[in-house]
Design a protein that fits this description.
CATH superfamily of chain A: MetI-like
Number of domains of chain A: 1
Largest interface: A-B, 77 and 65 residues
Number of strands of chain A: 2
Shape of chain A: globular
Helix content of chain B: 40-55%
Distance between the termini of chain B: 50 Å
Number of strands of chain B: 10
Oligomer: heterodimer
Largest sheet of chain B: 7 strands, mixed
CATH superfamily of the largest domain in chain B: Periplasmic binding protein-like II
CATH class of chain A: Mainly Alpha
CATH topology of the largest domain in chain B: D-Maltodextrin-Binding Protein, domain 2
Shape of chain B: globular
Radius of gyration of chain A: 24 Å
Strand content of chain B: 5-15%
Radius of gyration of chain B: 22 Å
Number of helices of chain B: 17
Strand content of chain A: under 5%
Order of helices and strands of chain B: HHHEHEHEHEHEHHEHEHEEHHHHHEH
Order of helices and strands of chain A: HHEEHHHHHHHHHHH
Structural class of chain A: mainly alpha
Number of helices of chain A: 13
CATH topology of chain A: MetI-like fold
Largest sheet of chain A: 2 strands, antiparallel
CATH class of the largest domain in chain B: Alpha Beta
Helix content of chain A: over 70%
Chain lengths: 293, 399
Amino acid sequence: MAAGLSIPVEDGVVRRRPGLRAWLVMLPLVLWLAAFVVLPSLMLVALSFAEQKGIGGIVFSGTFRHYARVFSEPVWAKVVGTSVWYAVLCTGLCLVLGYPVAWFIGRASPRRRDILITLVMIPFWTSFLIRTYAWITILGKEGPLNAFLMAARIIPEPLSLLYTPFASVLGLVYNFLPFMILPIYASVEKLDGSLIDAAHDLGAGPLRAFARVIIPLTAPGIGAGIMLVFVPSIAMFAITTLMGGGSDPTIGEVIYKQFTSGRNQPFGAALGTILLVIFLVSLWITQKLRKSR
Amino acid sequence: MKRAQLAILAAASLVIAACDKPAAPPPPPAPPAGTSTSTSAATSDGASASSSASASSAAATPAVQTSTPAGADPASPDEAKKLRIFCWSEYIPQSVIEEFSKKTGIDVSVENFASNEEMLAKLAAGGGPYDIIQPSEYVVEALVRENALEKIDHAAIPNLKNIAPEFLNLPFDPGNAHTVPYMAGTVGIVVNTEVVKDEITGFKDLFQEKNKGNIVALDDAREMVTWALLAQGLPVNDLSDENLAKAKALLSNWIPLVKVFDSDSPKTSLLNGDVAMGVVWGGEGALLLIADKKFRWILPAEGTHLFIDSLAIPKGAKHPGNAMAFMNYILDPEVSKKLSEEFPYLNPNTAARALLAPEALANPASFPTTEQIQSMQMFKDIGERASVVDELVTTIKAQ
């Protein structure tokens, strides 16, 4: 019955097949996607069924050997597990830290909004590498943070902050936080304040209004933010190697090494393909969740 | 509404910026060409096209070159005044390249790689075509075996006479038919004597439980396996299953002690005081000794290995004459002295060493004694065993 009701609603939305002109307008996008997303992905998948010969040549052989290797040794699953764990941690922290910031910016006066959004963006005008090296300097044993904490007599001797899992997660959160703030901000900004007033008028307390009205209404932003943070942070290895010291191998680093010192590009491609499947599945799940609401 | 769109746009631009991360893994033939500088990204999509073009010219160039040695002359009329160098990052000083350009009028473009294998992958994918590459000894061996290097004309490189005989005519390139030595070096231990009071003579003293969390090591699977082999008196090039099992037993204890894995700049964590000891490249060790007297260099008692990075001309190079002119220029004593001053590795150039300051020559991390050099082993190409070595180290790290 519920399904029967929902169909006419969907039909109410104008759903025409795009005409030729629409396709022409879309053409650059379609070409761009084909050339830079679809084609490289297909090449990656094809490479995962090949063999590396000699100093760098690739011979296509249709082998499943590399996939068999991924599943025969626990180490590769463990590496994926570590990466997913870091990504989940990073996404969770970004959500907890980013939501209030996005809310605050979204509800501020238009003038302040622009300033605040610019402030969120400013660090990203410098190179990622420079920002990461700045953190290395800040967190170092003889760095300013330790110097400050010791001068303030908070700690008796310098803390080991750098080259720890803490540093890895800090670096990830720092780098991905804007990806969470911006989409949530976009949702908050569109949020109709009268709906919150209505919730209050109908007797909802602040918690209830937040859980039943505000969260559902900003859910698209939250979903987009989660995807924008979770997916890239799984494969992000520059931070975990530079700030984490590289003692916990992550999937991005392992794939990189297959293409370089490991001299096994097809195996790296197999790992990359599996990562791609993980991304597609998580995308599919979020899509499902969104539809089922 | 407009603002919301702006925010999404901003987010999208961030995504794009993130895709441009410098350390991103270079997907083999795919467009975003990761680490290297601007020009390489442009070539990747047209790689197949340019490789076929270079293949046809490859057939033509050596013939020209061998029949007319004059083709090696930088002023050769049939060669455009261009040179494409594909070299290690932080290895050839920019000033040296600029001066070469100024002197010869040759327009030089430089692209960098961070590992030998990265270079090989780009060569195999048809990158370039490069005129000069800078492979290490075991890679030269593989490239010579696969007939992937042009022969060089010694008449065009008279400065080769400046190179010490122990760096010439080595097994990886008999008679230096394809390469000239650029720099050599070794791997050793650096200790911060203000923190470490124990006597450390080799790998076994370094990798001790009490030093846990205080060690930096090169992030290189083959290096680590080599140290474990050396510590057991095993030859570094015999990577049989039996030897690897022995190496693994030792590394299972060693690797968990390491705090930082860094092969790009292992000196950073030592300088910042985050670790007090480690295994680093000789050149990095030399820089640490120059930076602070508290650092001490130790050549491991169990032995170490010698690496030699060479300059070579890959098959398909469009400007082999200019490439040889560059080789000759690099081997000039005054120029070679500048290389040593900026990157204090083991300079094989005797004439350049004569020009170096006495304290630079006395730096033990740059210049081991002749007896020490003779005791060092050299890497051979291990081909597909590299994959096994990589898995061994990854497995221990992930535990």
